[in-house]
From TrEMBL:
Essential cofactor(s): Mg(2+)
PANTHER family: ADENOSINE KINASE
Membership in a protein family: Belongs to the carbohydrate kinase PfkB family.
Keywords per UniProt: ATP-binding, Kinase, Magnesium, Nucleotide-binding, Purine salvage, Transferase
Carbohydrate kinase PfkB domain residues: 26-189
GO process annotations (BP): AMP salvage; purine nucleobase metabolic process; purine ribonucleoside salvage
InterPro entries documented for this protein: Adenokinase (IPR001805), PfkB_dom (IPR011611), Ribokinase-like (IPR029056)
GO function terms (MF aspect): adenosine kinase activity; ATP binding
A GO cellular component annotation in the UniProt record: nucleus
Protein's name according to its UniProt entry: Adenosine kinase
Organism: Salix purpurea (Purple osier willow)
Function: ATP dependent phosphorylation of adenosine and other related nucleoside analogs to monophosphate derivatives.
Catalytic activity: adenosine + ATP = AMP + ADP + H(+)
Protein EC: 2.7.1.20
Amino acid sequence: MASEGILLGMGNPLLDISAVVDDSFLQKYDIKLNNAILAEDKHLPMYNEMASKYTVEYIAGGATQNSIKVAQWMLQIPGATSYMGCIGKDKFGEEMKKNSTKAGVNVHYYEDEAAPTGTCAVCVVGGERSLIANLSAANCYKSEHLKRPENWALVEKAKYFYIAGFFLTVSPESIMLVAEHAAANNKVKLVQ
């Protein structure tokens, strides 16, 4: 039987900023349709421009967070899922918190003072899309956040853990702490 806090995810949170854009926007930022790339310096202004120029939809995303949100929807038990990752202290971070909480996920983000929240521009033209991910703060998670009593309590409460492989490059120490706890307590851990 599912219960509160049964599943904990850890990963790279990205705020999807989705909008129908025009060809001139694609050309301005050298974006090809049906593509998924990491942002370069030339792409960095596009996120604020999208938010101010187009009607956007904000979606709390990133591979692990998406999976946790689906699990939360399937379980239909308030707070059945929890999630940790790193966001910035900015308007996109606030939007991420609002969006994830609305989905019923118990989020405990580490908030980086220097790096902006990771974003993913979802540029749609004629039903085709391109994704441009700016990882930024998503790459800044620290194991010290995991070790805080209020966050470690989520680890102790969870019976299952989901951590996507992307997080291996961000905080291997955090993954090892969770893995050691899971092994010592006969809990299931999935790193994909």
